[in-house]
Amino acid sequence: MNPVPPVGQVDRTGRTDEQAFRRPVGVRSWLLGVNPAAKLIAALVISFGLIPAVDPVTGGVVLAVTAALVPFSGINRTTLLVLSVPFLLMGASTGLVNLLYGEEGASGALGAAVRLLAIALPGLLAGASSDPTDLADALVQRLRVPERPAMGVLAALRLVPLLADQWRTITLARRARGLEAGRSPAAALSIFFGRVFALLVRAIRTGTLLATAMDARAFGTGPRSHARTSRWRVADSLLVVSSVLLLGAAYTVSARLGTLSLLFG
User: Would you indicate the residue range of the signal peptide (predicted)?
Assistant: First the structure.
């Protein structure tokens, strides 16, 4: 593997540093090529814009359009399914609670569930389709986020796979010691919380070591140079503008159908 050349230079293959860092992006994964800052802004626009709308049509329009982008996000189906399970459970539980105890009946329950999913899906796509290093570069260079919290975000995202490996290690270690729940739900619950506590202890230790190492390398103490530049392209601006237009279209459709219901109305 050829080393990455310094900024502004070319490597032995004749590629510049920007070309060396750039990953090939096809039609099926075009969202990977969008600047993470643009994806984050678009997700925030949709999330905050949907807060006032409690009817199912407004959130449904946004959810349908956002879901249509999933095949072009470049995200592995298994990864997307695993990440979406908690949000699906939250949407189902929110709808059930509103159905049982809400005043709007089935329409209010459906609106609450759809609204939650429509708010969560854009953020899920923005996070899952962004490389952690690209995201940190975009936060610092494009959104002017201070370097210390941006490096914290990068470190946290890099530690997620490590925590998953530690969870598997804890599970195998307890199984090797004969700690099995069998058919007892109470024992299974007790073992589960024991694993969670052990993972929490390991996470704190890992975080402490990482913070000490980053402080020793002077991360976040002042301006730093960047190995690559976070570029803002026309497609990035179009994505942000499209998110605003999508919100306007969703509110227009629900208003024309007479289903628009506002939280503070």
Answer: none
